[in-house]
What we know:
By secondary structure, the protein is α/β, with parallel strands linked by helices. It has helices at 10-22, 38-50, 121-138, 144-154; strands spanning 27-30, 54-58, 75-81, 89-91, 99-102, 106-109, 115-118. A five-stranded mixed beta sheet has the order 1-2-3-5-4, sandwiched between helices. It has a two-stranded antiparallel sheet with strand order 6-7.
Amino acid sequence: xxxxxxxxxxxxxxxxxxxxxxxxxxxxxxxxxxxxxxxxxxxxxxxxxxxxxxxxxxxxxxxxxxxxxxxxxxxxxxxxxxxxxxxxxxxxxxxxxxxxxxxxxxxxxxxxxxxxxxxxxxxxxxxxxxxxxxxxxxxxxxxxxxxxxxxxxxxxxxxxxx
Length: 162
């Protein structure tokens, strides 16, 4: 689906997401985004949400750009920040970008061997996906709405009054 240029078409993305819904996959980690096919993408995201699936999507790395599917209300949008532990994150109720996770100075393997520090929302998104998967493992009957509520309860917003 995604080639050497790290890009694809919106039609291929919609086809893959439709496949995931038909396969009834519980959780999707989406480290990608588009600005086209908004209506079709929103419809698929809503279908998934109401079937009990939850999509976790990385926000665009550009500061004031969100992108889709991250910008959809039925999707958990993730931005990056620095955290000491990969289990620490923030969850903001009533915001388009609900979650912030460790995506700054993340140690990751580099081509050819060894490790390098990377920064990006694509490193933060799997943190929230993993936490959500652990919640689903322990509480398999939670709805998508309840999973979002559980993330809100688990958040590390000590510097925020909500």
